[in-house]
Amino acid sequence: MTPITARTITLTARPDGWPKPGDFRVEEAALPPPGAGEVALQMLWLSLDPYMRGRMNAGASYAPGVALGQPLPSEAVARVLHSEDAGFAAGDLVVVHDFWRSHALRKAGDLRKLDPAEGPIQRALGVMGMPGLTAFAGLKHIGQPKPGETLVVGAASGAVGAIVGQIAKAQGLRVVGLAGGADKCAYVTGELGFDACIDRRSPDMAAMLAAACPKGIDVYFELVGGAVWQAVLPLLNPFARVPVCGTIATYNDTAPPAGPDLSGALMRTILVKSLTLRGFIVSEFAADAPEFRATMAGWLASGQVRYREDITEGLENMVPAFVDLLAGRNFGKALVKLAD
Amino acid sequence: MTPITARTITLTARPDGWPKPGDFRVEEAALPPPGAGEVALQMLWLSLDPYMRGRMNAGASYAPGVALGQPLPSEAVARVLHSEDAGFAAGDLVVVHDFWRSHALRKAGDLRKLDPAEGPIQRALGVMGMPGLTAFAGLKHIGQPKPGETLVVGAASGAVGAIVGQIAKAQGLRVVGLAGGADKCAYVTGELGFDACIDRRSPDMAAMLAAACPKGIDVYFELVGGAVWQAVLPLLNPFARVPVCGTIATYNDTAPPAGPDLSGALMRTILVKSLTLRGFIVSEFAADAPEFRATMAGWLASGQVRYREDITEGLENMVPAFVDLLAGRNFGKALVKLAD
């Protein structure tokens, strides 16, 4: 095996608000040869997902924050360069929970093999991967959609929101999205088949959302928080379900916003409308992955589910691409391509 | 049947903040004789419950607000004065969803007969009635307590909180209450058998609660909102369940409190801790009533569950007693006794 230099992006400072380049550093190190049961990987695709912002903080998010000097997590699609495990051979394509880096040694047991005949391999980071399972399982277990109901999802052109809406549409719901700008809204209704899409930046957003939901809202898949959530709350029907999957609008807040304090009003609304709010992390529903992948493969093959990717080239562009994702400047699943 | 004058307390103005005497009026009218299938009732006991405050507002609470000029709802224990229905006879004791009034004509189908041999009849308004079922069903369906877990409930000496804690204690949980003042706390630990009770008025309330919950909180039965809820939130464990049954601390707010706005932080906590918040109203669990009454009768007979009543005499004292309830000046289930 020829010597390989692995480049890794580490966290050097905890972002104060929006992440900036100085909070990160690229480190280079020679990749040692794999030991028994290990595999040397070249990362081809890394995933950018909003949850990573929480891992940059010191306090507990889903998990403890990443330690300073350590790399951030990412799902990755990789090619096997060299294997010391009987289950893998050079050239195999795999998906792995990894980090913001170009190469790695990993244990064979951490890898799941991909069949490139099944479609573009980077799907394993999006519609066929973690974001897809998040949408599928959060909707199934918490959203519990029923035909004829109305579902609303923000970030409707994004990796999770687009799939949430398309699944709900396939199940006979009225589906209303919110997205940032006219182009994204046109895509959400035209390409993804949502019944309506509201520009979240419109000053009339709340009134437009109300008009688009004449029978109220039965399922609100929460990805964004902030003003969208405040606009949704008065429209929720009794017994509405709110899978709380993300609140990206608040991830870079350095302090709670100015008052008044609406948290008491939120609790009262939960009470009088018999609402269910349920936070979740996709790992809770890992057992659904096989059913999800089989179902989603069918939907993709039939054209029932469509998707869009927002591809950044090069590890060196990963940080700005992540900031773009937090700001909603991506259009589709945010991916970083490291190699062909 | 001798002529009967029914006295009814009607709502004459929507309270702006705390209810005041001028928001109500006592009206008198002769009770007509019952028609076929009807029963003339003399109310012996009326119930006072925090939810009634919401019904005084114009906006939708659980149900539309009570119209001005109309009486407020109350559960009642009544004696049959005269019956034109074969199922009831003069002298029978019944429980009925009624109103703030002394006498009424009701259809026989609205009544449930009480057997005075089973215990004090006013239990049907408290530990054996709506508050008891609220505690029982909210805990069973939403709280889902497991032995070894920690449950916290505010208003721990009140009609619902006292029962929540005693049921959880019987199921093997560590149970921590909050109540207003040393007397109530002594009752909650001494008489009701909670493991600890924190004075919600103590300036160290949050620190004391944390110390009383060394393994965090798995179930928080929400009755109070406000500062108690803010103290509970950081102590909740992953996958904690929060039955949202009331937020009495906020019922008389005329506007949201000053900032900062903590609603975004609340949503983020729901997310990162995979919390379940579920609002409910006892009517949702009406089907549990027979199981509840049978179970609770056994617990009362064995001494497993104990209770305390706070009795006000006379319909004319109902409004001040209700204000006392909202202010936490009651000590036990708030009842109004109209007649022996």
In summary, what is this structure?
Two copies of one chain form a homodimer. Chain A has 340 residues and is of the alpha/beta class. Chain A has two domains: 5-125 and 309-337, Quinone Oxidoreductase, Chain A, domain 1, CATH 3.90.180; 130-283, 3-Layer(aba) Sandwich (Rossmann fold).
Protein architecture, described:
The structure is a homodimer of 340-residue chains. With 340 residues, chain A is of the alpha/beta class. Chain A folds into 2 domains: 5-125 and 309-337, Medium-chain alcohol dehydrogenases, catalytic domain (Quinone Oxidoreductase, Chain A, domain 1, Alpha-Beta Complex); 130-283, Rossmann fold (3-Layer(aba) Sandwich). Chain A is built from 9 helices and 15 strands. Chain A has helices spanning 52-55, 130-143, 161-170, 182-190, 205-212, 226-232, 263-272, 289-302, 318-326; strands at 5-11, 24-30, 38-47, 73-83, 93-99, 103-107, 112-114, 150-153, 174-179, 196-199, 217-221, 236-244, 276-279, 309-313, 333-337. In chain A, helix 7 links the parallel strand 12 (236-244) and strand 13. In chain A, helix 2 (130-143) crosses helix 3 (161-170) and helix 2 (130-143) packs across helix 8 (289-302). Chain A is globular and about 65 Å long. The A-B interface holds A 54, 60-62, 222, 225-226, 229-230, 244-247, 249-250, 253, 255-281, 284 and B 54, 60-62, 222, 225-226, 229-230, 244-247, 249-250, 253, 255-281, 284. Strand 13 (276-279) of chain A pairs antiparallel with strand 13 (276-279) of chain B.
